[in-house]
Amino acid sequence: MAEQQGDPRHLETLDRDLDRLSKLETATSYVGRPLVGPGISLIFVVLAGLAAMLFFGDANNSVVVIIAACFGAYMALNIGANDVANNMGPAVGANALSMGGAIAIAAIFESAGALVAGGDVVSTIAKGIIEPTSMGTAEVFIWAMLAALLSAALWVNLATWVGAPVSTTHSVVGGVMGAGIAAAGFAAVNWPTMSAIAASWVISPVLGGLIAALFLALIKSRIIYQDDKIAAARKWVPILVGIMAGAFATYLALKGLKKIIKIDLPTALIIGAIVGAGIWAIMIPVIRKQSQGLENRNKSLKVLFGIPLVVSAALLSFAHGANDVANAVGPLAAIVQASQSGNFTEAVSIPIWVMVIGAFGISFGLFLFGPKLIRMVGSQITKLNPMRAYCVALSAAITVIIASWLGLPVSSTHIAVGAVFGVGFFREWDAERRIKKARIAMPSRPVYAPEERRRRKLVRRSHFMTIVAAWVITVPAAAALSAAIFFLISSLSGSI
Mind telling me which residue stretches traverse the membrane in this protein (predicted)? Predict the structure, then answer.
C-alpha cells in the first residue's frame, strides 16, 4: 500500500483529479454568477408582495394588490437597470468615478429623490393619460393598470437585455394608453394630455442638448481657449458649481420641503440664489488649492472638474429618482387606491410603502444590472472628458428638475442622451469652425478629404440612428403588448 502511494503514476492521477475538481469549481462559479442578479431580484419582488400582504392581507382585492406590488417592484428594477446609465454614464465615461462609486452614489440619491420629492408626477401617470370614468368599473381600471405595469416592465427588460437605452417613461405611458384603449376604446385616452406629453418628449432632448452645448461653449470660450487656463478656471469653476447648487436648492425648497412648509416659487428662487452664492464662495478657495502647481494645459483642467462632475451626477440621480419613480409606483398607487375605496376616479394618494418599493427597486436594479448601459452611454456615443460630462449631467439635471416641477413625465433617457449628442454635435461644429479659421489664416494648410472628415465625426451616427429608432418603436410596442395582456387578464378573470 505504501508503495502504491509512493508510485509517481498515483500522484499524477491525483493531480489530474484535483485539476478537474478545480476546473469544475471555476465552471460552477462562472455559471452561477449570472444567476445572482436574477435571484436577488426575485427575492426583492417576493418581499414587495409580502409587504403588500402585510398591509392588505385582510382587505378586499388583496390578491390583486399583492400581484400589483410584485409587478411594480419588477418595473422599478428595470428602471434602475436601464435609466441609471443616463445619470452615471457620463461620469464613468469621463473616468471621474469608478463603476462601484457611481453605483453607490446613484443608489443613495435615487432613493432620496424618490422618497423626498417623488410624488408630483405620479398623478399624471396614474390618471392623466386615460379617463378613469370611461373604464366603467374599478375592476376594469385595475386590470388596465396591471397590464400597463407588466407590459412596460417586460419591454424595458427586453431593451436592457439587448443593450438599448430606451425610455421607461415611454414604456409606461404606452402601456397605460394601450390598456386604456383595449378596455374602453380610443375615447378613454386623454388626448390633450398625451399631446402635451408627446411634445415634451420632442422638446426635452432638444432642450437638454442645447443647455449642454451652451455650458460647453461657455467652458471652452472662458476657460479652455484662454491663454492662462488655470487662472480662468479659478474664476469660472466656482461659478458653475454655484449654478448647480442654486438649481438643486431651488428644487428642494419647492418639492422636498412641501410636507413641512409650503414655499412659493419666488421664495424658492431666493433660497436657491443664497445657497448658490454660498457654495460659490466656498468653492473659490477649494479650486484655488486644487489648482496649485497644475500645468497650463487642458489635461490639468480635468482635475478641477472632478468635484463638480461628481456633485452634478448626484444631483441628476436625485432628480431622476423624483421623476421616474412615478413609472413604477404610479399605476401601483392607482390600483391600491381603487382597491381600498372602490372609487377609482378620486385623486391618487401614495402610501409610503409604495414609494419605498419604487425607491429600493430602482437602487437594486442599477446595482445588479446597470453597468452594461452605463458603459454604453458613457463611452460609445461620443468621447467624454470631465468638462463635457459635467455639461451633460448639469443640463440633464436642470431639464429633469423643470419637468418634475411642472408635473410632466418626460423621459430622462431622452434628456440625458440628447445632452450627450448636444455635446458631441457642438464639438463637431466647433472643430469645423476652427478649421475654417485656420484655413483663412494659413491657406497652404492641408485639408482632409470629405470622406476622411466624415470618418472623423465626433458623434457615432450608427448609435444615433439606433437610439432614435428604439425611441420611436417603444410607445407602440408597449401599447400593443399592454393591450394583449389586458385581454388575457380580463379573459382569465371573466371580468368582461
Answer: 35-56, 63-81, 140-160, 172-191, 197-216, 236-254, 260-282, 303-322, 350-369, 389-406, 412-429, 464-489
Could you read off the pLDDT of 142-166 as tens digits, one per residue? 888 899 999 999 999 888 887 777 8
Q: Nine-digit cell at 62?
A: 388583496
Whether 330 is in a domain gets the answer yes
For the whole model, what pTM was predicted? 0.77
Question: Does residue 121 lie in a domain region?
Answer: yes
Q: What are the residue ranges in the chain where pLDDT is below 50? A: 1-5, 21, 24-25, 27-32, 452, 456, 495-496
Domain membership flag for residue 285:
no
Domain extent, residue 421, equals 37-228+296-493
Q: Residue 219 in contact with residue 387, Cβ under 8 Å?
A: yes
Q: What is the predicted pLDDT for the residue at 475?
A: 86
The residue behind cell 461653449 is: 217
Q: What angle do CA 387, 421, 172 make, to 5 degrees?
A: 115
CA distance 70 to 59: 17
Cell of residue 288, nine digits? 484655488
CA-to-CA distance for 177 and 473, rounded, in angstroms? Answer: 15
In terms of Cα–Cα distance, which of 418, 425, 420, 426 is closest to 206?
418
* 131 phi-psi bin (left φ>0, alpha ψ -120 to 50, beta other): beta
Q: Which residue has the cell 487642458?
A: 298
Using CB atoms within 10 Å of the CB of residue 465, give its burial: 0 to 12 exposed, 13 to 18 middle, 19+ buried.
exposed
Q: How far is it, in rounded angstroms, from Cα 232 to Cα 224? A: 8
Q: How many domains is the chain built from?
A: 1
* Residue 156 is assigned to a structural domain of this protein: yes
